Input
Amino acid sequence: VRSAWSLSNARYLRPKVGYEITDGLDGELALIGARRGKDPTDMDGEKGYGVEVDASLRYAPYEHLWLKTTAGLFFPGTYYSAYEHDTLGGGFDKQAYGLQVLGTVEF
Output
């Protein structure tokens, strides 16, 4: 597989900026870029994993309780966009997006 639940052999950069909108409501914007760390000989031209942009809002209405939502947009690099699968074919060069909603009680 190209990657499963994690990414290995990577160098990445993740700058982020956050802002307290109001008491108990914070926002964050992050950019994540990743490239292969060590070049395998069978993939000389495919160095970039891609770039992802994430925007998050975290709401903490009470002590020990918070809710967080994150939206992300992934722009695949050549490692994925040049890939062709025997059964699935190609087309892995399109952007992907996701949304996560998380509620946490800390004790």
Summary: The chain is about 5% helix and 55% strand.
